[in-house]
Structure prediction request, 358 residues.
Amino acid sequence: MITISLCLIVKNEENTLGRCLESVKNAMDEITIVDTGSTDKTKEIAARYTEKIYDFTWIDDFGAARNFAFSHATQDYIMWLDADDVLLENDLQKLLLLKQDLDSTVDSVTMNYNLASDANGNIVSSLRRNRLVKRARQFQWIGAVHEYLAVNGKIIDSDVTVTHKKERCDTADRNLKIYEKRIADGEVFSPRDLFYYANELVDHHIYEKAVEYYQKFLDTKLGWVEDNISACGKLSDCFAFLRDEQQKLKYIYQSFEYDTPRPDFCCRLGYHFLNSQKYSLAIFWYKLALDLKDSSNHSSLKNYACSTWLPHLQLCVCYSKLGENETALEHNKNAESYVPNHPSVLYNKEYFEKLFNS
Prediction:
């Protein structure tokens, strides 16, 4: 059976750290906490679970902090989490089984990462991350912001899921400030940095500048295909906010140059044609969103709404506009099976009950 070191970097995580460590402690042989300047009870809480608590002077570099944490691990494998992550009980049991059975020739194990769920418990978005890596390989974190763990060798996908439970937003502008400082210092951004800086700009509603950096990113022609597709989606959204329909459509269609259409882009086109009252065209794209097989890389962000309830809800509207109310009702029922308490689903349900019972 392998042994595992858990590594976390933290700052002012008194509200979440105990929950995180409590959820995984039974699978860990060692817990290493690196604190980057907490002023609350974070280190006091960490001390309940481990003596391995280290200070790291913050230098606006997440990759450096994570590498420092990894350097203090001593067990066979290293697992990393953030303080607002948890393992649910069934995933803890899966991890314990994985720990018992893992072939020691494996270099890295990916785990699913559930980022958000809706009020009905449906997973809204998720992706896969390399979570458990062989210490002897000395894999390194790359990047000051939106860092990634560069791994190679024998990599397997596990059925363990890490669940993200974000609690606070007081660091909302932290990443943007780091990027802007790097620009002010004259740093030349990599394609990855251009992409993630543009994402930060979108999150702060700085759309025109975001457009500039997404276009710079795509112009490099060096981006990961999933980031290229994502950039097209973000550009389409930016131009929607800027009320430029021609450019909005341009980048939806440009996404098709990188791979087969994705459900979220089909829904974008469906929405465009729905608003243009071209209901048959809207129906085509929403149906395609439901029919498509997911061709995205397993490490890319998944938006499940666009391949489940959202197309059904919009198809209900389209068919209702065309006077095909029985078909519209069926699509509303399909949407209801995913999001039974969605306001639009409930409104439609009441509307059709009155329509068919009058």
Observations:
- Residues 100 and 207 are 49 Å apart (CA to CA).
- DSSP finds 14 helices and eleven strands in the chain.
- The longest helix spans residues 225-241.
